[in-house]
Design brief:
Layout: H1 2-26, E1 41-42, H2 45-62, H3 74-82, E2 85-92, E3 104-111, E4 116-125, E5 136-141, E6 144-150, H4 163-180, H5 192-201
Antiparallel strand pairs: 1-6, 2-3, 2-5, 3-4, 5-6
Helix pairs in contact: 2-3, 2-4
Amino acid sequence: MKKTVVSLLIAAFVIAFCGGIAFITFRNYFPSKSVFDTPNMLNDKMVNMLNTEIEKEIYRHTQSVMYPGYIPEAGQNTIRYLKTIKSIESYARYGVNSTQPRNYIELKITFNDGSQASEIYTGRPCSAYIETCLLIKAEMKDGKAVKVYTNGQERKGSPDRIIPDLSLLIDKAIAYDIDRNRNHYFEPEKTQKDFDREWDNQK
């Protein structure tokens, strides 16, 4: 009987010890929700900054020689698409306090008709090992930002420091529509018939 009690006590101790080690090791992988996970702090100074980046991204995606291949209608189609957006919000996949791998910044787009697109990949990593990531929510009207909210992290550096974050927000929002409506931006992809015709005409 005593051996059974001792064995149970030892087992309980081992389980508790292992649980404690696991908690210490993995607590940053699955952190509790942080106040910095929600961009709810209004920053009026960022409205003009974001609208400047919107103009730049429209140009980069439609006319710039660095991005060849766009059809002449691409610029107007980009503007038309941006006018359908009610808000764009960035968030960290696992939260800004997480140190979990592949904790990327993603976007959620809300359209004027109430529909939403989320989990839009940006490629921007977020790790609490480095810093608390800047999160942004832009309320839009007629393709322009009218209000900008953040989680307050922009104040930790100069205004120029966050320009890449603003550019990324709009760049990936436009890229989402390009993926869905490629024919609004590029010539239709060639089919096998097109290739056959080119070979028939080859001299």
